[in-house]
Design brief:
Blueprint lengths: L16 H8 L19 H46 L4 E5 L5 E5 L10 H8 L3 H4 E9 L5 H9 L6 H4 E9 L1 H5 L1 H4 L2 H10 L6 E3 L2
Antiparallel strand pairs: 1-2, 2-5, 3-4
Helix pairs in contact: 3-9
Length: 209
């Protein structure tokens, strides 16, 4: 478990807590109007344009759905071929796929992953290698509304003995660079099969240029 160490420093100037908080606060968006949206009175030329816009929008949405299906099928078929190359030649983030017209498209896998929901299960698979393949991040949030005096104290320096009194800490585990680059060499076929659904990697991007 990581140990958090803080240092107390003498206060050289009076801290304006509200100014600090105001600088860190995000501006609130204006409340949306609840009034009914008016319908304009327009002639046939504009109505025809509106009809065409609706038809094109529906066509685009249909094409996008079809494209997502084609992309997923392409990823499913190219993924194993890339894995074979990575085993033989080392890590490859991008591969190109030729088409029937003498051109090609590229697929690029990033080192980003979705949230890991079952960390103990991942640890069971990788065992003592966990710290070599994953990192743990801490997200710290203030609990409730602290008084001005307490906020001033926290801004100046928080002692470890009172840390949990004011903050909630949420830990998140994610793969490190070694996990991504040595996935096909450091882990066995069985381990990769178990880890892939538990540590879901983002889908690769596809470019036609």
């Amino acid at each position: 478990m990581a140990k958090i160490t803080t240092l107390r420093k003498p206060v050289e100037e009076e801290i304006d807590v509200m100014a600090v908080l105001a600088g860190a606060a995000k501006p609130k968006e204006a409340a949306s109007s609840k009034s009914k949206t008016p319908i304009l009175s327009v002639g046939d030329p504009i109505k025809k344009l509106a009809t065409r816009a609706r038809a094109l929008t529906a066509e685009i949405e249909s094409r996008q759905s079809e494209m997502e299906l084609v992309k997923q099928e392409l990823i499913d078929q190219v993924g194993p071929l890339r894995a074979g190359l990575c085993k033989k030649e080392g890590y490859l983030s991008t591969v190109r796929v030729p088409d029937t017209e003498g051109l090609s498209i590229s697929l690029t896998w990033s080192g980003s992953y979705s949230k890991i929901d079952d960390v103990p299960a991942v640890k069971k698979v990788v065992g003592e290698r966990f710290d070599e393949l994953f990192i743990t991040t801490n997200v710290i949030n203030v609990k409730g509304d602290a008084s001005n005096a307490l906020l001033k104290e926290l801004i100046t320096a928080v002692g470890p003995e009172r840390f949990a009194e004011f903050f909630d800490v949420t830990q998140a585990v994610k793969p490190n660079e070694r996990y991504t680059k040595e996935f096909f060499s450091f882990l066995t076929d069985d381990e990769r099969a178990l880890l892939s659904p538990m540590v879901p990697q983002y889908k690769p991007s596809i470019k036609t240029k």
